[in-house]
Amino acid sequence: MPKGEVGDWIKQAMEILKAAGVPVDKMNPQDIAKIIEHESSGNPNAINLTDQNAKDGHPSIGLMQTIQPTFDAFKLPGHDNIRNPVDNIIAAVRYAVDRYGSVSNTPGIQAMNGGSGYVGY
To answer: What pTM value is reported for the model?
Structure first.
């Protein structure tokens, strides 16, 4: 498990996700930490106001830079705050598992594992 505050948030989110039926092998904590580092530098209040999502009216927000429609589609009941680090991780991990099969299969992690730079998901 990653260290520090981000590691604590990841651990909390993973416990909730596991209880909700997400298989542990689909959510590598080190890969979640890598995504967080590249997407927000660990800032739960990060917001991207310059990319295409922002131009389309729904900026990427939070630790894992989810847009509100994606967050709303993948959040769990009682975890409704996109800026809450645990809630953001929960929704983003559920999205990654649904879209890519696991956190480790996201484009950024795959690119880094192949020796390239991080690619957003």
So the answer is: 0.95
